[in-house]
Amino acid sequence: MTQPRDTASLMKMASILIVEEDRMLMERLARNLEKRCAVVKAVSGVQEADELRQRQHFDIMIVSIELSGTSGLTWVASLKEKGLRSEVVFMTENPDLQTAIQVIRVGASDLIFKPVRLQQILKSIAACLEKDSTIRRNDLMLEKVDTVKFRDTMIGNSEAVVECFRLIERIAPTQSVVLIEGETGTGKELAARSIHKLSGRKGPFVPLNCVSIPGELFESELFGHTRGAFTGANADREGLFQHAQQGTIFLDEISEMPVPMQAKLLRVLEEQSVRPVGSDREVPTDARVIAATNRELSSEVAAGRFRQDLYYRLEAVTLRVPSLRERRDDVLVLAEHFIDTFARRTGTQAVGLQREQIDKLLAHDWPGNIRELKNMMERYVLFGTFPDDLFDRAAATASSNRQFPSDWSLEAVERAHILSVLESAKGNKSEAARRLGVSRKTLERRLQRWEQQQQSSFEQRLVS
């Protein structure tokens, strides 16, 4: 049976569990579904099925009602009471009205009569997947309606922030590994949480700062360990990847991860399974990985501190969170937001900013980004002042931009300044863009335009 294109795509990503005592039927179903689905597991009893379910989530369970010991209906009913989210398709060799009523009460998606035809199973699986896809889309739409709350925490209307919002909404529903780049204090974890929130994933968001974990405990923290695996391991312990099943694990400051652990993380990303310390078995994981860094990972690779193969695996989908220098239009909006927030929290009356204070905020370079602004606004609410040296720093910044002849055009000043910063960054365009407070693409467009102008001028001189 040929499935519609969208259904076939959903089926390629589906995980199926078959529970059937008739070995011939079980093997026939498994053999045919393995050609169409991502994961197919087949067992003959409830106990084996439960063991599989503890290690892996299944989108659809195809269960025979007639099982030895506990019937398929009784087993699924108990799972539903515990919060089972998988779609269930029952098979039976004794179709009657009472069985059909019980199937409906259990909340199963379909009931198929034996002898089972492959087309019946495929049609039922397609209906389950389309139903689940519709639910996910509806959930995502509800999340997007709630995007105002997301934007209330990552506030801004500048072009840089709007583009960041757009990328987050685009990549969130995918299963891709994401690398978030940005300076310290720009809100990389907030962006990661937003991706998770808009993804529709059912599991938790699990953050880990790679700086905070001692090197010798890294593997156990991420992958878990078995009892007796090392001194002090008095019991089995789940790692963060297992805790983040069906959810998202956020690895902040990924550049600080020890090189040996980088190799093991790469294997997890490729194999979609982890091995707890001290164990000889693999545990499947479907946790989505989002990593973040405030460093140039390509430079870390060149210095031998970061694995090149892991870097290539992470950078496939990259999100860059803009610095506050790149979104100066948002400074006052953010400042007012933080003032209102801290005023409510402390039970004081919010005091508006004066013109002199506004000029001071707009002239500041914000090396600590939003975190610095947030801390400064908390101080302002509590004491009604800014740091004493902020005016001096702003004045120094302003004076550094008044070194050019007064008869120069604005474009000439801009070009001289950009080329000077690029030279000080030793030709590193990413670093120069960071110092200038613009995106690398913007910098490259400027350089390309000037190169074309220079080439055109050169050609005109040749003609003349």
Question: Helix- and strand-based class?
Answer: alpha/beta
Give the end-to-end Cα distance, rounded to a whole number of Å: 73 Å
pLDDT < 50 stretches? 1-5, 137-152, 393-403
Q: Would you report the number of β strands?
A: 14
Largest sheet: 5 strands, parallel
Strand content: 5-15%
Mean pLDDT: 80
**3D shape:** elongated
Radius of gyration: 29 Å
Question: How many DSSP H or I helices?
Answer: 21
Could you give the order of strands across the largest sheet?
Answer: 2-1-3-4-5
Q: Helicity, in percent?
A: 40-55%
Could you please describe the fold and organization of this structure?
The structure is a single chain. The chain is of the alpha/beta class. The relative contact order is 0.07. α4 (about 70-80) links the parallel β3 (about 60-65) and β4. Helices cover about 50% and strands about 10% of the residues. The protein has a five-stranded parallel sheet with strand order 2-1-3-4-5, with helices on both faces. The chain has a five-stranded parallel sheet with strand order 7-10-13-6-14. It is elongated and about 85 Å long. Residues about 1-5, about 135-150 and about 395-405 have low confidence and may be disordered. It has 21 helices and 14 strands. α1 (about 5-10) crosses α6 (about 120-145) and α20 (about 430-435) packs across α21 (about 440-464).
